[in-house]
# Entry
Amino acid sequence: MSFPFARPAGLAVVIGTLAAVGLTACGGATHAATKAASATAATATAAPTHAHAEAPAPAAPPAVATSAVTIDNFSFMPAAIKVKTGTTVTWTNADEEPHSVVSSEEPMRSHTLAGPNNTFTHTFSKPGTYHYNCGIHPFMHGTVEVMA
Ligand SMILES: [Cu+2]
# Structure
């Protein structure tokens, strides 16, 4: 079986288009997930099943209305919080292990929280849903939903 000359070039174009679509879909999914999370905060009941199908993100626990997060047993407790715009959130490390709080979605990077220097505060001035993690243990995740 031999293809005409134009065939391989055509295939390359198709693959290139697919790659571009893939990238677009990826960005779109992230956006949709963020929007869905905001919508969830507003309605508090609707499960964003659509967003889950597009973005294989872990199921988000319901956000707790508090400005205090305790780091305990290698997790942020509560892992998801919601606050009003302008709220200062305080993280306190209750573990023996050092932890930190970093986010690429909000300019937030704590010092290493350890011993007597075990708290970090950050004021959220814009509405949105901000994911963060521990800079030392990237598997430790949390979110802050900032409501208008
Ligand atoms: Cu940690």
Remarks:
- Helices lie at 6-43, 49-54.
